[in-house]
Amino acid sequence: MKRVLLILCGAVSLGAIVIAAPFLYLSGSRPYQEVSIPANGYELTAYLSDVDRTGDLWVIFGHGNRKEGVTHPLYTQILNNLPKDVGVLAINFRGFAGSADDRMVDSERILDRSEDIQAAVDYLIARKGITENQIILIGHSFGAAQVANAASEGSYKLAIPIGLGDWQSVTTDPRKMMAYLRKFEENTGVTVSREQFIREGSQFMSQAITDPCPTAPIAFVFAGFDDGKEPMRIQYQKTRERCPTLVGWKVVPFANHTYGTEESNLPVFLQRIYSKIVLSYLVWQLNHLISS
79, 98, 112, 239: which could form a disulfide with 210 (CB 3.0–4.6 Å)? Predict the structure, then answer.
């Protein structure tokens, strides 16, 4: 009986450590200063953090199709727990959160935010005296498409798309397309036609990202349950030898697309534990890629 109790106590203690460790790992914080970045006639809201920085690297972070922009819980936890010796500039793409959306409805490039990425790059180069190869681009979902696309246009140290969506599937499935367009309109207030979505979406497909090969290294990160993971894996395997700039493929097992930070079927307390566990592994992977 005594042995059984010892085993049970040991199991409970081990379980408590496993649960507590992700909460401790994601307990970091860092100060951010809100700044405004001009982007080809638009003003982007952004958050800059370079306090106590000793390294020479900067992260530019782009969010997904979320109304809150970079203040969504998924992104705040990532941003607060990136390496302290790396500077961070997190931007709200035009149309999201506090970034201006005027004239977007008349633009020929509503989904493409390459000008926003470039504006953030120019901002850091002008104010921090750095070069492109000191910049790491990180983006999630909608933002993953933007940074993957930008990897073909600059000499960045690294681009890390998290959860790059299956744009091929969305542009060819009317139901998926309409669901995405409704969500985009809810989050930005801007309506995108099906024709424009198909036209612009083609540049974010896996074939377009890897042909021709990107000029900057790309490390792809996916959640285990991401829709776009398998199509992108196939493309990655096909082009890995041809494109030495495709330098990484990481999967966070058992994670959903938002790493448990949005609604799920789990009770609240279990969802919080699940989210911390998978999100801590994501942040660990990101920090490893940044530091390597």
Answer: 239
